[in-house]
Structures are given as structure tokens and as C-alpha cells.
Specification:
Layout: H1 2-17, E1 25-26, E2 29-30, E3 37-39, E4 43-50, H2 59-83, E5 86-94, E6 97-106, E7 115-121, E8 127-134, H3 135-140
Antiparallel strand pairs: 1-2, 3-4, 4-8, 5-6, 7-8
């Protein structure tokens, strides 16, 4: 009887966990495949990555700053999903050969109430984070993600 009760309690928990982004870290490295964004009924989920600066001499420095970079990256992804991104591409061709190519993107928007849900560190000091933003909040402020550019 206790096993059945425990199973009934666990089923909703497992169902709720299925709607989040899964880890992008496998054996201390970036996994071979993963999703960067997920839009479900309740949240916009985004992932960000930050690399460690090899010039920093302590693990603490590398972890703290790679985490901050990963959070900034997650904000960038959320802004791109909600507001779109301006894209500029430049290609230089000389003698029918590409000698230079750049792609610049920018996104502008105001994001509040982002929640940091998960932080994972890589073996090299890099960091991956998962953040989320409530869809009900976005709808309150008139920004329905289904209508995002």
C-alpha cells in the first residue's frame, strides 16, 4: 500500500519535471545535443552558456565570471525570443573567394522577473544555466510569446 501511495505522489512530480529544459552538461562537457529554449504553457525556458577566462588563476574566479556570462547569455536568448533580433551580415568576396564574413546580431528589450533555476559547471570552468520567465507575467504586460517576432 505504501508503494502505491509513493508512486501516486511521484507521478505528478515526474510529469512536472518533463516540461523543463534538460541538462546540457554530460560528463563535465557540453552535451552533443540539447535545446536552448522551450515555451510551455507556464514558462519561457532559456539556457545560457559562459566560458571561463583561462587567465583567471582560481576556480572561484573562473566559476563566478563564467556563471555571470551564462546568465547574460540566457537573458540575450530570452530577449531574442520575445522581441526578435536584428541581423546584419557582411561578406567580402575577392576573386570569387570569400575572404571575410561577419554576422552581427542585436536584441533590445526589457526583461524582469527572470528566475535562475539551474547552474551547472563544466570541467574547464565554463558554466551552463537554465532560466525561466512566467508566461502569465508576460501576458500581464501585453507580451504574449506566441505573438513574438
Amino acid at each position: 500500500m505504501k508503494k502505491i501511495l509513493a508512486l501516486l505522489v511521484c507521478i505528478p512530480l515526474f510529469a512536472a519535471c518533463g516540461k523543463t529544459l534538460k541538462s546540457a552538461v554530460k560528463e563535465g562537457k557540453i552535451a552533443p545535443s540539447f535545446n536552448d529554449t522551450l515555451l510551455d504553457d507556464d514558462y519561457l525556458w532559456v539556457r545560457g552558456f559562459g566560458a571561463a577566462n583561462p587567465k583567471h588563476q582560481t576556480d572561484s574566479q573562473r566559476r563566478i565570471l563564467s556563471r555571470e556570462a551564462a546568465i547574460a547569455h540566457a537573458y540575450q536568448r530570452a530577449t531574442e525570443v520575445l522581441y526578435g533580433a536584428e541581423l546584419q551580415s557582411h561578406v567580402q568576396i575577392v576573386d570569387a573567394t570569400t575572404v571575410g564574413s561577419t554576422v552581427d546580431t542585436s536584441a533590445t528589450g526589457v526583461l524582469k522577473r527572470m528566475e535562475l533555476i539551474q547552474t551547472e559547471y563544466l570541467d574547464d570552468g565554463g558554466c551552463a544555466v537554465i532560466m525561466r520567465l512566467s508566461r502569465s507575467y508576460l501576458q500581464e504586460i501585453g507580451l504574449d510569446p506566441k505573438e513574438a517576432k
